[in-house]
Amino acid sequence: MATQLESTGSLERKLDMAVAVADVNRQVVDRLRKLSRNVKMPGFRPGKVPMKMIEQSYGPQVHAEVLSDAVSKAFSDAVTEHRLRVAGQPHIESRDTGTESEIGFTATFEVYPEIALGDPAGLSIERYESPVGEAEIDRTIEILRKQRVRWNEVERPAQDGDRLTIDFVGRIDDVAFDGGSAQGFPFVLGEGRMLPDFETGLRGAALGETRSFPVAFPADYGSAELAGKTAQFEATVRRIEAPELPAVDEAFARQLGVADGDVERLRSDIRANLEREVAQRLRARTKSSVMDALLQLASFDVPKSLVDAEKQALGARAIEDLKARGIDPKQLPEIPPDTFAEQAERRVRLGLIVAEIVRAHSLQAKPDQIRKQIEEFAQAYENPGEVIRHYFGDRNRLAEVEAIVVEQNVVDWALGKAQASTRTLDFDELMGPR
Question: How far apart are alpha carbons 8 and 2 in whole angstroms?
């Protein structure tokens, strides 16, 4: 059946189409006949219900289903006929054809843009490295020791590293404010958990001593009522505890899973774990650098329908993240519709560029690459074989791994084509929160 295609924008298209009334009616009759073989109604045996009653009860629903299927097929055939790559879902509405023999429809939709990739040789990309040596292993062991610290009460004045337990109250203009007082409050002096003035006020305090001191809240403090103001605090030291870190010995090694307590084996295990974690973070940093650069590789209009869908997905993800943190989204202000607009547009644009690179340069994931990636994941678990079998038995997980491999193929391709420089990151900078 003839269709008419019209371009109404750079990516928007309008498609007029029609379906024959006779074809729709014939299919409705066929479906009702099939339905009549098994339909049940009070007073009739199955298969013996009069067709007129079936038409009255099920006719409108069946007609709507047949018409929907006919329109979907007509649209699909027209898309194939015109060689269109439809982005998102079409908006379909009826139209007058001027004849009773046809039912007309107009589909409005967007198509994917034609993407002309530029020369990657002009891109500048940073790849990252961070060596793992004895100093990094020592630093990690120190963290593990601090996680197993014992606190022993002392009677000397408080110093950095001690855990203090205090009662305190804060006032502004001699009026106590919400959240400014506590009883039996513990914190580690010098750790930076409290405001600098608060820690300074208690440094050197003796057990049982009460001190009064001012605390200036920064201008960007989280509470608008306190930001930029100075409060007067009064605090009493109820307990001073000094840290006692465990020795790095056989007992410590056994606590960390080394059955024979061999400290050198512990260091070897820590090195292997660090190297694996560092490698993953370096790949993530380098990939981010590559993806930022790839956005410069092509300029094109992005389908609004894809951006809108991505905005909704990001919004839903943000709500789920709030719930996971124990926050009820209903208690927060409504998220403005365009909160994720820029991020969504970037993600869609980058996704289209990456897809075109994969297509143009045959960078699809190969089976041996997928297996290698899964084996790498499995090394972080006690039973790698079981993890590998789990991945290969789950199509969704396999698809996730395939996507990771494809992205890495694109990263490797870009690094081989662009102007890539190497930047060495300090261990703490790499392992700290971004």
Answer: 19
The pLDDT assigned to 15 comes to 94
**Strand locations in 291-343 (E):** none
Contact assessment for residue 285 and residue 430, using Cβ atoms and an 8 Å cutoff: yes
Phi-psi region of 43 (alpha: psi -120 to 50; beta: other; left: phi over 0): left
Quick one: pLDDT at residue 434? 58
Pairing of strands 419-424, 124-129: parallel
Identify the DSSP state of 222. Answer: S
Q: Which two tokens stand for residue 114?
A: 């034609």
Phi/psi at 234 (5° precision): -125, 125
Query: Are the beta carbons of 205 and 187 closer than 8 angstroms?
Result: no
SS3 114: coil
Which of 133, 113, 125, 173 is closest to 307 using CA atoms?
A: 113
Residues in the chain: 434
Structure tokens at 337: 């519709």
Task: Collect all residues with Cβ–Cβ distance below 8 Å to 133 and sequence separation of at least 6.
Answer: none
Dist. CA 137–CA 229, nearest whole Å: 43
End-to-end CA distance of the chain: 57
Cβ-defined contacts of 256-264 (< 8 Å, 24+): 256/144
| Binned average pLDDT, 10 residues per bin, the chain of 434 residues | 86 94 92 84 79 86 92 93 93 90 94 95 94 93 94 96 96 92 96 94 96 95 90 97 96 93 94 92 94 95 95 90 82 80 95 96 95 90 89 92 95 95 91 72
- As a whole number of angstroms, the distance between CA 179 and CA 202 comes to 19
pLDDT of residue 57: 86
Instruction: Give the ranges where 171-221 is alpha helix by DSSP (H).
Output: 196-202
- Contact by Cβ (8 Å): 420, 125: yes
pLDDT for 183 equals 96
d(CA 343, CA 314): 9
Q: Cβ atoms within 10 A of the Cβ of 333, count?
A: 6
The DSSP bridge partners found for residue 168 are 182, 235
Q: Which domains, and CATH codes, for the chain?
A: 4-111 (3.30.70.1050), 120-132+260-431 (1.10.3120.10), 149-244 (3.10.50.40)
pTM for the model: 0.75
> Which residues fall within 8 angstroms of residue 87, CB to CB, at 6 or more apart?
11, 109, 110, 111, 112, 303, 305, 306
